[in-house]
Sequence to fold (184 residues):
Amino acid sequence: MSERTLNQKTKVNYGPSGRAVSQEIDNDLLFNIFQHLTMERNANVQYFSMSLWFQERDLNGFSSFFLNESKEELEHAYKFTDYLIARGQNVVLHELVQPVQQWESIEELIAFAFNMESDLTISLQQLYAISERTSDIRTNIFLDPIVESQIKSENEFAHILGKVKFSEENPSAILIVDEYLNRK
Fold:
């Protein structure tokens, strides 16, 4: 601590939740964090729906994979809420959309999931850009491991989509992909 800090009464900033904060979050960044939080929560529900779709078709590897993805998206949502609370914010939860529950093919479902992951990646990149623009280093540091994980997840979905596309919905090939996912 500097001598000045020790010898003076200093003003403490408080966030909307009443928690002491050393740096407020830019309003544009905060708005986009809330939007991203909603995307993570929507992905959680959508992946759960996909897990059920595969479970109904006795494709337990796919079902287990998507159930794990659902849990991971919920964990991401928790990380964002914990971060917002640590930054003195009240967490605002927006309404979720009803998940898609019917698919024409496995490839269509996996392509939908890949696009969802791609949208999450773009959203994180936008958050990162806003936090850089507003010199919010705390948010950049918070986002670093999340962005890295998101890019890996997007790559994994591209890999699975490639396997499913290559299988051309051949039942034997789909069962091999299902077993591959069951071992993950």
